[in-house]
Amino acid sequence: SVQLDSSTTTNPYSSSNSLSQTVNLSANVTYHLSFYMSAEAARGQATTSTLDLILNGGGFSNSTTVFQTSRTGTDTKATIAQWYLETMDFTPTSSGAVTLTFQDIFTVNGTSSNSSLDDVILVAVVPEVPNGIAVAAMCGMIVIWHHRRRIVRVR
Question: Whole-model pTM?
């Protein structure tokens, strides 16, 4: 996991810390992004963290989705992170390089608001064929095969 630090109003930390990755994607293909996010475990205090996901390229221009997570602060030692699965789907309109930027956004709390990020996965979504279509296609192939077999025997 990685922690993105922008946890105080004191410079230089008031500017958001970020992490980026550029990938080549295909146009008109839906992609599924998933990752785990956690608010910083800070001395057992309740904390909320905000993370912007910014897409650039592939028809996106600073397209931003906001993710936010909170921790209850009930643990007094604050040694255990509370991880939450976050997901989103997106479809580029043009093929090529797309940059995904995870940017921590300062959130006012009684303690720091750093976001942590882990297990980022990006996959192309393959549409499922409904069962009825698959069965109809197989029946059609059997009928064609059977019909061709009869034609061959007649000759």
Answer: 0.73
